[in-house]
Amino acid sequence: MAVLRRRRRRRQLALYFATLALFALLSSASALGFTPPRQLTEVERRRLGGPGSWPPSCRSKCGRCTPCKAVHVPIQPGMSMPLEYYPEAWRCKCGNKLFMP
């Protein structure tokens, strides 16, 4: 009977310390700055998106290159005469390379 009580007590202590370790790990992760991504403000959305356009998700679009960010780039039509205005499109950029989103 005493053996069973000691085993139960050891299990309780192990569970207690595992819970304590998990809590310490989670609290230290938030203290180190590992926080979930925040929502963009209206001003940030307008600045990034432009009128009627949202930046694409560039996750896994640049291969192993990091950081992969969405950028606006002018698209030059295949005309022999240069235009003053070029339409813009979203691309994923890493370093000096552009990738399709």
From TrEMBL:
Cited PANTHER family: EPIDERMAL PATTERNING FACTOR-LIKE PROTEIN 4, EPIDERMAL PATTERNING FACTOR-LIKE PROTEIN 4-RELATED
Biological process, per Gene Ontology: guard cell differentiation
Principal location listed in the UniProt entry: secreted
Record family assignment: Belongs to the plant cysteine rich small secretory peptide family. Epidermal patterning factor subfamily.
Subcellular location: Secreted
Superkingdom assignment: Eukaryota
Job of this protein: Controls stomatal patterning.
Protein name: Epidermal patterning factor-like protein
Source organism of the structure: Salvia splendens (Scarlet sage)
